[in-house]
Design goal:
The chain is an alpha/beta fold and about 300 residues long. The protein contains eleven helices and twelve strands. Strand 8 and strand 9 form a beta hairpin. Bound molecules: zinc ion.
């Protein structure tokens, strides 16, 4: 049996998994992300944890195919990261550095793209080879895979669909500094923001008034038949549906996966997007399916492992 390590590097923890070549996760564990001194300990800590696991399991290094790692930031196909402010990192080659620390083959990708690869391998996108994965969390993350390959682009900024411009009239700024980005409407934060606006603009009775407004309470209210909540969900769905229709014109995916915190509300998050997608999409992409991501927080380690195999 051959083995692979999958590493999902986040701002607070590093999730790690030991996989066999069939994609079965044999063990999962986490170590803290120590960001002191521009994150200089991060890769040595990961290398030590891998070496520790190899020793603990008495694995033969000849049986280890390699290490895959997903990291936050633009990363090109050679493994060079073009800065990761979250980690204190500048520009350097992650694959080469981790490879020299471990003596193993290393492949590196952007965390959102890698999560999409994981979902395609063992999650909601299993059986497909061209997918768009949208992660609806604090922001809107994106991962695009075309014919089995991650679309990372020139400097690794491909798939940043949260910053597609949607609204010329927006007055508030997005986290990126521009105004009118998709994630200002369709992320968990964006849904909450639009929810507060809608509530302030109407006297209509709603269960949302007087309670904490967030993506969960809004979608709970939608499921309970609340009309104002449905109006808020409609704003989320319209922006995301139109953005995905535009993306489909470029990449023609087989399936679009919705994941991240908002998607925990279930199939209702698709119900509000699909009609707008179908209304706007070019006829050549009409058959695009929608599904929910299924791997949750493990998508990153699965995708990282798959990176080594692809
Ligand atoms: Zn933006």
């Amino acid at each position: 049996m051959k083995y692979i390590f999958g590493v999902d590097l986040g701002g607070t923890t590093v999730k790690m998994g030991l996989f066999n070549e069939n994609g079965e996760v044999l063990e999962k564990w986490e170590i803290p992300t120590i960001k002191a001194n521009n994150g200089e300990k991060i890769l040595p800590d990961i290398a030590n944890s891998i070496k520790g696991k190899i020793a603990e399991k008495s694995l033969n290094t000849n049986d280890i195919i390699g290490v895959g790692i997903g990291a936050p930031g633009p990363i090109d196909s050679n493994g060079t990261i073009y800065g990761a402010p979250n980690l204190g990192w500048g520009v350097f080659n992650v694959s080469e550095t981790l490879s020299s620390l471990t003596g193993l083959k290393v492949k590196t990708g952007n965390d959102a793209n890698v999560a999409a690869l994981g979902e395609m391998w063992m999650g909601g996108g299993k059986g497909y080879s061209s997918i768009v994965m949208v992660t609806l969390g604090t922001g809107v993350g994106g991962g695009i895979i075309v014919n089995g390959r991650i679309l990372s682009g020139y400097l690794g900024a491909g798939g940043e669909i949260g910053h597609i411009h949607m609204n010329d009239d927006e007055e508030e700024s997005c986290g990126c500094g521009k105004k009118g980005c998709l994630e200002q409407y369709s992320s968990a934060t964006g849904i909450t923001r639009m929810g507060k606006k809608v509530l302030a603009s109407t006297d209509e009775a709603t269960v949302l008034r007087g309670q904490d407004i967030n993506a969960k309470t809004i979608f709970d209210a939608v499921k309970a038949g609340d009309k104002v909540a449905a109006q808020i969900a409609d704003i989320y769905g319209r922006y995301l549906g139109v953005a995905l229709a535009n993306i489909a014109c470029v990449v023609n995916p087989e399936v679009i996966l919705l994941g991240g915190g908002v998607s925990k509300a279930g199939p209702v998050v698709i119900d509000y997007v699909k009609p707008y997608f179908e209304k706007r999409v070019f006829h050549g992409s009409k058959g695009t399916r929608f599904a929910l991501a299924t791997l949750g927080n493990d998508a990153g380690i699965y995708g990282a492992a798959k990176l080594v195999l692809s």
